[in-house]
């Protein structure tokens, strides 16, 4: 869940447009024009990642508070010696910036790297390796551990602290009105996300459709959250289960993504129909939960009488639409649990190979040509309980042009690999981006997701003890 601090620069794929974001919005056409303005030339399409992790005390495996000598704020302060600059909400330190990258805080202090945009996966790898080194050095000095899992394996909701950010206070109050697991989503989940650009409205439509429809394949293959409340949840991704019960108006499958009528205008209309959370004013977020953006465009909100929103307000609203794939000034793929660096790069390679090669994208469109929204939504709701070991049982009729889930996954992997080969982006050693795909290919060949690996250890050599997980499920 990307939540830039009020004073933060956006970290993502497309470049910032400065004062343009403060333009007053009075009609939907301006919002469509803004999306269209972010179309990129093919050779300027970039890759950005967002990676969330849990921090904990190594001595007793407890989550960190915000304050204190070993708290989240102290971690942010320690990062500043590596050239990160502080970002504030009022007098509260809530994030960091360095160049086009940012480090932000999720509601319970989960640490999120919002990476800079890169032309290839080699740049992404270098950034993630550098971040992991810095974080490891800080964690070692402070007696902390780093855990890359989709859901906190033992901590209860009551044990989780809250970061003192005004937006999160608003969401915390609003979530119980729209779902049963909203607070769990905020405090006990971590994700890996990928940001990609689009070249035109047609290209956006193709990438949105493919990303939404193919996401279940990698959600199963790289599921990484089998535990909750100190025990086996019996699911492979408890995080994805939680997201399905957070807010049906803004989570899960977006049916419009599979519509042949999808356009910037159609998406804007859909986004305008979703209630707001807040707007940032004078360094704080003003509670507008349940209000509607079109009313603000008319200057009709009682909280802000006569005031119209800005493009910055609109972009903040788009950031509250938390579907598995969402459209902003780029496309954000959000369906996967937090993963180790190697699996994160493999996931980024999968999508880069498919979405950034015309031939691979065409092949992917053929794979999902007859995808039915209702069937995809049903599959999405069943996914959290499935693993690769039983993937032959996952129903794909009406979703993929394949006879089985493993066949669909293998075909998608082949498209990704061929796309990366055709991209031919070489590192200093002359290797192309296919090397980053290998950990995912190994997972599929073995037929066991990270969740299934952890579950096997838990019921086997760990004898029901989750303590080894804190040392092994690292970034």
From TrEMBL:
<dbReference type="GO" id="GO:0006750">
    <property type="term" value="P:glutathione biosynthetic process"/>
</dbReference>
<dbReference type="GO" id="GO:0005524">
    <property type="term" value="F:ATP binding"/>
</dbReference>
<feature type="region of interest" description="Disordered">
    <location>
        <begin position="1"/>
        <end position="20"/>
    </location>
</feature>
<dbReference type="InterPro" id="IPR006336">
    <property type="entry name" value="GCS2"/>
</dbReference>
<dbReference type="InterPro" id="IPR035434">
    <property type="entry name" value="GCL_bact_plant"/>
</dbReference>
<keyword id="KW-0436">Ligase</keyword>
<keyword id="KW-0547">Nucleotide-binding</keyword>
<comment type="similarity">
    <text>Belongs to the glutamate--cysteine ligase type 2 family. EgtA subfamily.</text>
</comment>
<comment type="function">
    <text>Catalyzes the synthesis of gamma-glutamylcysteine (gamma-GC).</text>
</comment>
<dbReference type="GO" id="GO:0004357">
    <property type="term" value="F:glutamate-cysteine ligase activity"/>
</dbReference>
<protein>
    <recommendedName>
        <fullName>Glutamate--cysteine ligase</fullName>
        <ecNumber>6.3.2.2</ecNumber>
    </recommendedName>
</protein>
<keyword id="KW-0067">ATP-binding</keyword>
<dbReference type="InterPro" id="IPR014746">
    <property type="entry name" value="Gln_synth/guanido_kin_cat_dom"/>
</dbReference>
<dbReference type="Pfam" id="PF04107">
    <property type="entry name" value="GCS2"/>
</dbReference>
